[in-house]
Amino acid sequence: MAISEPRRIKVRGADVSGIELTTKALGSISGRVALEESKVTECKGKRRPLFGETLVTPWHNEKNAAKDKPQFLWSLGTPTIPDKQGDFILRNLAAGQYRFNTRSFAKYWYLQSISLPSSIAPGARTTLANRPTDAARNWTTMKSGARVSGLTITLAEGAASLNGQIKSAENQKLPARLFVYLVPAEREKAEDVLRFFVSLVSIDGSFALNNLPPGRYWAITKLAGENESNVLSKLRLPDEAEARAKLRQEVEAAKTEIELKPCQNVTNYSLPFMVP
Q: pLDDT by residue (tens digit) across 79-90?
């Protein structure tokens, strides 16, 4: 609820009257982190993630951010760590559109899904009334003072890792700001934003990708523009579906496919230097 009332304030020793202050309540989203274990033999005995080492961060849609709001409002919605039961609350959220970055430091676990009940997911597109809304693929719209519950972040056991080297012609120097992209090869995963990965290639041509869901991927190298920043964040933005579809066409044409098994660590992988 908005509150507006005349107030008398003092600015640098001078009385200023008639100033009208308007305050609006900030919103919150409560949820939980769920763990889905694997029954695959290769994953037995792997360390489970600790809720205390899982970080959930609300990120607002900068393109849709209201121009009349002071910038400090967006910094009020800080990252949070779930409690011992996996429950968490994201507080002090200004009205706007949000997505939820999640980081876990357990090597053999990956981010499987981020969802909200379709009946309460504000502003999200749904196809089935009783089907949870994909909060990774869609923005979640928060109104002033809204209290949203039911956000579920699922971490699944079975993550793989990929470490390798870019293979270039003899004496060929790799360009700066070169990235390795992994894109889901399975058609049913084509629109799963959590299956798109990118890693900056080091000066020596090495790269590393971790916490990867098992499955089939296409891999490719790609240059980033000088003014292009936050490459991974942009790749997974809800409104970058067209860019992801275009990228998928590029990597499919390159025909460099790799299949990752549950809890597999692939090392010394050689990826040809190829820029579409």
A: 899 999 999 999
Instruction: Give yes or no for a contact between 175 and 161, defined as CB atoms under 8 angstroms apart.
Output: no
d(CA 202, CA 174): 10
pTM exceeds 0.90 for this model: no
Grouping H, G, I as helix, E, B as strand and the rest as coil, residue 75 is helix
Instruction: Flag whether 13 is in a domain.
Output: no
Beta bridge partners of 5: 21
Cα–Cα nearest to 263, from 128, 149, 106 = 106
Measured CA to CA, the distance from residue 271 to residue 216 in angstroms comes to 15
What is the DSSP pairing of strand 197-200 with strand 257-260? unpaired
> Which tens digits make up the pLDDT trace of 51-66?
999 999 999 888 876 5
- 206-212 and 197-200 beta bridge pairing: unpaired
Total domains in the fold of the chain: 2
Range of the domain at 188: 160-272
On whether both 174 and 218 belong to a single domain, the answer is: yes
Tokens 């050689």 -> residue? 270
